[in-house]
Amino acid sequence: MLRGTLYYIFFSFVISTAFYSTVYGQTKLSIDDKLLQDSIYKSNKKKVLNFSMKEFDALFFEYFEKKNDASLIMTKPQFYNYTVQIATFSDRLAALYPEQKQVAEENKARWLSESYEDYLEYKASQKK
Protein backbone atom coordinates (compact mmCIF):
# COMPACT_ATOMS: atom_id res chain seq x y z
CA MET A 1 0.00 0.00 0.00
CA LEU A 2 2.70 2.49 1.03
CA ARG A 3 4.87 1.59 -1.92
CA GLY A 4 1.92 2.01 -4.28
CA THR A 5 1.22 5.45 -2.82
CA LEU A 6 4.86 6.46 -3.27
CA TYR A 7 4.90 5.31 -6.88
CA TYR A 8 1.67 7.20 -7.52
CA ILE A 9 3.10 10.38 -6.02
CA PHE A 10 6.34 10.10 -8.00
CA PHE A 11 4.53 9.24 -11.22
CA SER A 12 2.04 12.09 -10.77
CA PHE A 13 4.83 14.55 -10.18
CA VAL A 14 6.80 13.37 -13.20
CA ILE A 15 3.76 13.80 -15.45
CA SER A 16 2.81 17.19 -14.01
CA THR A 17 6.40 18.42 -14.18
CA ALA A 18 6.72 17.36 -17.81
CA PHE A 19 3.49 19.18 -18.67
CA TYR A 20 4.36 22.22 -16.58
CA SER A 21 7.87 22.47 -18.08
CA THR A 22 6.54 22.09 -21.61
CA VAL A 23 3.81 24.68 -21.18
CA TYR A 24 5.54 27.24 -18.96
CA GLY A 25 9.22 26.57 -19.54
CA GLN A 26 11.78 26.04 -16.87
CA THR A 27 13.23 29.19 -15.38
CA LYS A 28 16.70 28.82 -13.95
CA LEU A 29 16.82 29.66 -10.25
CA SER A 30 18.50 32.87 -9.17
CA ILE A 31 21.29 32.93 -6.58
CA ASP A 32 18.85 34.48 -4.08
CA ASP A 33 16.37 31.65 -4.67
CA LYS A 34 19.09 29.04 -4.21
CA LEU A 35 20.22 30.70 -0.98
CA LEU A 36 16.62 30.74 0.27
CA GLN A 37 16.25 27.05 -0.61
CA ASP A 38 19.50 26.24 1.18
CA SER A 39 18.38 28.07 4.30
CA ILE A 40 15.01 26.28 4.29
CA TYR A 41 16.72 22.93 3.70
CA LYS A 42 19.12 23.40 6.62
CA SER A 43 16.41 24.55 9.00
CA ASN A 44 13.92 21.79 8.12
CA LYS A 45 16.06 18.78 7.18
CA LYS A 46 15.94 16.98 10.52
CA LYS A 47 12.20 17.54 10.94
CA VAL A 48 11.35 16.41 7.40
CA LEU A 49 13.54 13.31 7.57
CA ASN A 50 11.44 12.24 10.56
CA PHE A 51 8.08 12.84 8.86
CA SER A 52 5.67 9.94 8.82
CA MET A 53 4.05 9.15 5.50
CA LYS A 54 0.86 10.74 6.85
CA GLU A 55 2.70 14.00 7.59
CA PHE A 56 4.31 13.97 4.16
CA ASP A 57 0.99 13.32 2.45
CA ALA A 58 -0.54 16.25 4.34
CA LEU A 59 2.30 18.54 3.26
CA PHE A 60 2.18 17.31 -0.33
CA PHE A 61 -1.58 17.74 -0.73
CA GLU A 62 -1.58 21.09 1.10
CA TYR A 63 1.00 22.35 -1.42
CA PHE A 64 -1.11 21.29 -4.40
CA GLU A 65 -4.27 22.73 -2.86
CA LYS A 66 -2.56 26.09 -2.43
CA LYS A 67 -0.92 25.91 -5.84
CA ASN A 68 -4.23 25.21 -7.56
CA ASP A 69 -6.30 27.73 -5.55
CA ALA A 70 -6.82 30.53 -8.10
CA SER A 71 -7.54 33.06 -5.35
CA LEU A 72 -4.28 32.42 -3.46
CA ILE A 73 -0.72 33.36 -4.34
CA MET A 74 1.97 32.00 -2.06
CA THR A 75 4.91 34.18 -1.12
CA LYS A 76 8.34 33.13 -2.31
CA PRO A 77 9.34 31.75 1.14
CA GLN A 78 6.03 29.85 1.38
CA PHE A 79 6.48 28.36 -2.09
CA TYR A 80 10.05 27.26 -1.45
CA ASN A 81 9.18 26.00 2.02
CA TYR A 82 6.83 23.47 0.40
CA THR A 83 9.04 22.49 -2.54
CA VAL A 84 12.20 22.13 -0.45
CA GLN A 85 10.47 20.05 2.21
CA ILE A 86 8.97 17.77 -0.44
CA ALA A 87 12.41 17.46 -2.05
CA THR A 88 14.01 16.71 1.32
CA PHE A 89 11.59 13.86 1.94
CA SER A 90 13.13 12.14 -1.08
CA ASP A 91 16.26 11.61 1.06
CA ARG A 92 14.17 9.61 3.49
CA LEU A 93 12.60 7.57 0.70
CA ALA A 94 16.05 6.81 -0.72
CA ALA A 95 17.14 5.51 2.68
CA LEU A 96 13.98 3.44 3.17
CA TYR A 97 13.93 2.04 -0.38
CA PRO A 98 17.53 1.73 -1.61
CA GLU A 99 16.38 0.10 -4.85
CA GLN A 100 14.52 3.35 -5.62
CA LYS A 101 17.46 5.64 -4.78
CA GLN A 102 17.86 6.92 -8.35
CA VAL A 103 14.16 7.74 -8.64
CA ALA A 104 14.29 9.56 -5.29
CA GLU A 105 17.35 11.56 -6.36
CA GLU A 106 15.70 12.54 -9.65
CA ASN A 107 12.54 13.51 -7.80
CA LYS A 108 14.52 15.63 -5.35
CA ALA A 109 16.30 17.41 -8.22
CA ARG A 110 12.97 18.13 -9.92
CA TRP A 111 11.46 19.61 -6.78
CA LEU A 112 14.55 21.76 -6.16
CA SER A 113 14.39 23.04 -9.74
CA GLU A 114 10.84 24.38 -9.26
CA SER A 115 11.04 28.16 -9.63
CA TYR A 116 8.88 30.80 -8.04
CA GLU A 117 8.79 32.74 -11.32
CA ASP A 118 7.32 29.72 -13.12
CA TYR A 119 4.81 29.36 -10.30
CA LEU A 120 3.75 33.00 -10.76
CA GLU A 121 3.30 32.42 -14.51
CA TYR A 122 1.15 29.40 -13.72
CA LYS A 123 -0.94 31.47 -11.29
CA ALA A 124 -1.40 34.20 -13.92
CA SER A 125 -2.64 31.59 -16.39
CA GLN A 126 -5.28 30.44 -13.88
CA LYS A 127 -6.93 33.86 -14.03
CA LYS A 128 -7.44 33.73 -17.79
Uncertain segments: 17-25
Query: How much strand content do the residues show?
Result: under 5%
Number of helices: 6
Number of strands: 0
Which outline best applies?
A: globular
Could you walk me through the main structural features you see in this protein, from its secondary elements to its overall organization?
This protein is mainly α and 128 residues long. The protein has one domain (2-126). It has six helices and no strands. The protein has helices spanning 2-24, 31-49, 53-68, 76-96, 101-112, 116-126. Helix 2 (31-49) crosses helix 4. The chain is globular and about 45 Å long. Residues 17-25 have low confidence and may be disordered.
Key descriptive features of the protein:
128 residues, mainly alpha, 80% helix, globular, transmembrane, membrane
What are the SSEs and their pairings?
Blueprint (H helix, E strand, L loop, with lengths): L1 H23 L6 H19 L3 H16 L7 H21 L4 H12 L3 H11 L2
Helix pairs in contact: 1-5, 2-4, 3-4, 4-5
Summarize the structure.
The protein has helices spanning 2-24, 31-49, 53-68, 76-96, 101-112, 116-126. By secondary structure, the chain is mainly α.
